[in-house]
User: Fold this.
Amino acid sequence: MNRAAFDQLVRTNQEPLRRFLLNLCNGNSSLSDDLAQETFIKAYLNIGSFNGFSKFSTWLFRIGYNCYCDHLRQTQKAINIEINEKNAGFAEGSGHGGNHELYLALSKLKEVEKHVILLFYMEDKSIKEISKITGMPENTIKSHLSRAKSHLSEHLKNIGYERE
Amino acid sequence: MKENNIEEFFKKHKQTIADDGFSARLSAVLDCTPQPIIKEQSNTWIVVLISTLVGFIAFAIMGGYQIFIEGMMSASKSLATLSNFTPEAVLSIVFSMLLLAGLGRYAIKNS
Assistant:
């Protein structure tokens, strides 16, 4: 694959990947763009290992997801609701922020539930694709998704989002 | 209803992310990045070499040429006389095919 072809792939895939990472980073756009850039560079350098068994976007999301997980590990962030809530508040107004309602709702979920629900609802990925991206078995994804829906539904009900 | 609520919530909050120079900045970084090296799997040539050698050796040991020619000739005489296909002839044909397939794959990989 030459550079022109790769540049075209960047243009096509940058929006969903950056949105996914932005939402994982609770609206911190500078961090999510750094991760997105790292993702594309890794994809470019390892393009030879893309075997074509899955969609390019799925492969790219997997790299992005791993970059995000590496970042989490490096920064030793404690994954709990309190810190997520703090981040959601802090991120507001930074770049693409201002989606406080979404980040607050996501802060009610466990980290893994957040990943799964964002991929499923926000990025319209299938269970099979989510399994490839996260490396978790499909049944595990289904159970995380079910729990996430339950938690989120409860939160939406509390904030009066329920529609009849 | 629960499903609809969640779907609607995410639909409502789905952001549109403008490029805002992201692709251009990335392109500038990639300009300074070395070209990706497409690594060939290190064991590929070993597999091709071994299968080729095995093919040749088996072919020679079993008198492949003679049997192959005889087999082909007898086959060409009449398809009805399939009993002329001795196990040796069948083996020689199989190994010949394997040899050709191996060489073909090697040629395709290197082209």
Remarks:
- Chain B has a mean pLDDT of 80.
- Chain B touches chain A through 28 residues (CB under 8 Å).
